Amino acid sequence: MKESFRGQCNLHIYFAEQYLAQLQTADAAEWGGHYSRATSESMICQLLLAYQSHLADLLDQQPKFGLALPQGAFNARSFVAPELPPEIIELADREDHSHWLKSLINYPFLQTAAVSSAGVIASDASSDGRVSLDLVDCLAELKSLIARHRATLMEY
Questions:
Q1: Integer Cα distance of 139 and 14 in angstroms
Q2: pLDDT range class, residue 131, cuts 50, 70, 90
């Protein structure tokens, strides 16, 4: 069987599901709290890779647009062309306006750890700037988006 972006996307979704299952059964204090964070961020990496593989699959399935796959990390807003596939246009808009996707593609992996403000005169703990994602929602939304785009591509 030939390697494909679609197969790669499916595998990253599978890995994300495995990480989610681990998160739901693991003790949050395991490895001093690091296990949960590392597993969450590993899942986010898998979701990002699935998203990029999906973008690559969209381009691969629609050669009439003649778009080359960018090198390195990219998202739908990375593409600049007079004519883009409608799915790429939709995703570029979602990257700006859909909270789950915007947060996913802009996730800052090295965030400061949350600390207790007990015994402190003043604290901005409620506005610490940490970005948190609803991983269950992100996975469900991404799977739904991918399924819808694949169904649309089958119509072409």
A1: 10
A2: low
